[in-house]
């Protein structure tokens, strides 16, 4: 893209969840229209988008409509079919590029890409059948996290082994759906951090301060900024995130999760080719949020500042949350963001809040 999209242009978004909702809001602030393609009619993004195309991600009529009305197309989650992204890219620019989507959709492909780029990860073994599972588990001394290679997030599609015997793994491959799996070995780490970074169409790169992440049941509970890591660790994590962006010829925002080892070295846990839950704090503590940054990037605008204006803590609302609202809403330094979801189920992300620390 040689010059920025003019105001009034339409940005197409594949996916209608809360990330899409926040992208729509950011796009509107910059004068852009939005069209969301999402199978669920009453989706969070559809409530605020200019147009909702309520079709499946492989529906030819819906994709044709999205392509016709969009000047550029992006996505808000990584499980969009790669074939869909590639077909749309034949007619309109699609950012991040389909190649980045493909690399992140398969955990084995992701690890191989990272290692081939000289980026350290936890040890891993590909698991294609029950015998492969038993061999991998034996190689890792009965320890590791077994994950589906595709799909699965927030702790879904995972099984943890601790000092397990081969007998304890009996029939687990079938129980996991007889689909391709990956066993990731444990690493000793002090904390988990993440970096939100962006790359523009002109190749410029910018990253935010690392956040320290606390998970509950495999789901992000809280992100704390600044992370309790050294300046060297933070700089190394940001450098790795920027290296990934360049290696993928990426355009847009990416989330990179790290384990920080006892010696302070960050190793990559996983990458997400989209705006990321651990970057929600940026909407309250930065003048340019990760959502605005993503819109700026895909629209060909200059990237915004990533300077942090305050320390903060972001916390997800998981399941029922209404009882907490009166107290939180009365706090002067709390910024609320609710997603418009009708049903609060246990573990479901219903919203978040960020508490600024001045």
Helix content bin = 25-40%
Average pLDDT taken over every residue: 95
How large is the share of residues in beta strands? 25-35%
Query: What is the string of SSEs from the N terminus onward?
Result: EHEEHEHHHEHEEHEEEEEHEEHHEHEE
Q: Tell me the distance between the termini.
A: 40 Å
The helix-and-strand class reads: alpha+beta
Shape: globular
What is the gyration radius calculated from CA atoms? 20 Å
- Outline the biggest β-sheet: 9 strands, antiparallel
* Strands, count: 17
> How many separate helices?
11
Low-confidence stretches are none
Give an overview in words.
The protein has 358 residues and is α+β, with helices and mostly antiparallel strands. The chain has eleven helices and 17 strands. Strands 9, 10, 11, 12, 13, 14, 15, 16 and 17 form a nine-stranded antiparallel sheet that branches. A four-stranded parallel sheet has the order 3-2-1-4, sandwiched between helices. The longest helix is centred in the C-terminal third of the chain and has 17 residues, at 231-247. It is globular.
């Amino acid at each position: 893209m040689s010059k920025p999209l003019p105001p009034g242009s339409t940005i197409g978004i594949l996916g209608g969840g809360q990330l899409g909702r926040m992208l729509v809001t950011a796009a509107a602030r910059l004068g852009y229209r939005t069209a969301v393609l999402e199978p669920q009619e009453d989706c969070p993004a559809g409530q605020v988008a200019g147009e909702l195309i309520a079709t499946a991600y492989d529906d030819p009529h819906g994709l044709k409509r999205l392509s016709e009305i969009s000047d550029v197309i992006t996505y808000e989650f990584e499980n969009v079919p790669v074939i869909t992204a590639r077909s749309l890219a034949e007619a309109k620019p699609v950012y991040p590029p389909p190649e980045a989507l493909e690399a992140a959709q398969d955990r084995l492909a992701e690890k191989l890409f990272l290692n081939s780029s000289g980026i350290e990860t936890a040890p891993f073994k590909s698991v294609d059948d029950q015998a492969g599972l038993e061999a991998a588990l034996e190689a890792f001394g009965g320890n590791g996290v077994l994950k589906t290679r595709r799909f699965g997030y927030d702790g879904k599609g995972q099984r943890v082994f601790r000092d397990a015997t081969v007998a304890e793994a009996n029939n687990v491959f079938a129980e996991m759906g007889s689909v391709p799996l990956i066993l990731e070995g444990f690493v000793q780490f002090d904390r988990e951090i993440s970096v939100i970074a962006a790359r523009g169409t002109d190749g410029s790169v910018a990253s935010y301060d690392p956040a320290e992440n606390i998970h509950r049941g495999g789901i992000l509970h809280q992100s704390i900024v600044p992370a309790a890591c050294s300046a060297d660790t933070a700089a190394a994590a940001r450098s790795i995130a920027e290296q990934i962006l360049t290696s993928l010829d990426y355009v847009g925002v990416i989330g990179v999760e790290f384990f920080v080892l006892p010696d302070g070295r960050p190793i990559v846990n996983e990458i997400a080719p989209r705006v990321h839950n651990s970057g929600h704090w940026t909407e309250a503590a930065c003048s340019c949020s990760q959502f605005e940054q993503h819109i700026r990037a895909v629209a060909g605008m200059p990237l915004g500042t990533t300077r942090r204006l305050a320390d903060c803590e972001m916390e997800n609302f998981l399941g029922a949350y209404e009882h907490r609202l009166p107290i939180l809403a009365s706090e002067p330094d709390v910024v609320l963001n609710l997603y418009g979801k009708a049903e609060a189920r246990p573990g479901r992300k219903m919203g978040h809040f960020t508490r600024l620390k001045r």
